[in-house]
Amino acid sequence: xxxxxxxWMFLIIGTTIGAGYASGRELWEFFGHESGLAILLFVIFFTxxxxxxxxxxYQRQSSDYLPVLRKIVGDKLTKIYDIMIFLYxxxxxVVMIAGSGATGQSFxxxxxxxxxxxxxxxxxxxFRDINGLLSINEYILPLLLSGLLYVLLLFTFxxxxxxxxxxxxxxxWTAAFSFSALNVLPLIAVIGAxxxxxxxxxxxxxxxxxxxxxxxVISYIYNNSLIYIADEILLYEIPLFAILKNYPIEMLxxxxxxxxxxxxxxxxxxxLGIVTRLQHFFNIPLWMLVIIILTTMVPLTxxxxxTLVAYIYPIYGILNLYVLTRLxxxxxWGASRKHE
Length: 340
Known about the structure:
The chain is mainly alpha-helical and 340 residues long. The chain has helices at residues 2-16, 19-22, 25-30, 36-60, 66-73, 75-106, 111-125, 129-158, 175-191, 201-228, 239-243, 249-278, 286-297, 305-319, 321-333. The two termini are 28 Å apart. It comes from Virgibacillus alimentarius. The chain crosses the membrane at residues 38-58, 79-98, 110-127, 139-157, 177-195, 204-222, 251-274, 286-305, 311-333.
């Protein structure tokens, strides 16, 4: 039970912490100054959303996101949101691939070398179907989370930052809605693909509460650090590198590797959502479908990482507000439809 719960927890976190989040760019676009309450609300919204999505997925024993999506938004809107989820997964996976290129540049490598490495790694991963992703998350995510938290706490203590000095300033609390909404579609896509592998309600609670708390703690500490270097963020494609600018090169290399793993796990989750949906239309091996999808994505990475995050993420955050509302209200309206 506990191991399975942690496995799903790492899948959820791996879906959420991608290039945009781990680099600090996504957090800064949504939060920034006066956002402590917004992050607390995000934890609550995110946890409730995970519980609802996992419960529906478990009840339907789903192997892709369509049955889960239909239950959440209803038959009339399912086709619209089916297309939206597909486009969301597609565009954000392009962002992850671009993030790999940007990470490669931090090592003075060609942008396209960084792109090539993640594309090859994704193809190899899916030779084992979905089990490859689940297995690698159990090893990568604990390393990623502990490494990111270590760097952020080190910066906090080195700069003698107070974690609660701005708590009386909370005018940006509404950002919780758009940031939470941004993250619900990939959760539906990925959790919907593993409903037939969940075996108990205890797994659902462990995964949902655990992922919400971990993301909340890291988001709060991270955002607090970004506020301190707010004047320098515009100069950096990846804000985390502004935090690390006075640290030894070894630290920069270490965090760059962690960033790449964050990019990789989220790209893998996005690919999982796409290919499990497309398998109903194409009778070919999963890895072959992955190759076809990646071939169409690579040319779109030319737009650049920070540009994609700045424009795509806020748009989807607003469009997904309806889905978030349905998820948060599901405990009230879902009971009347439980026998559908």
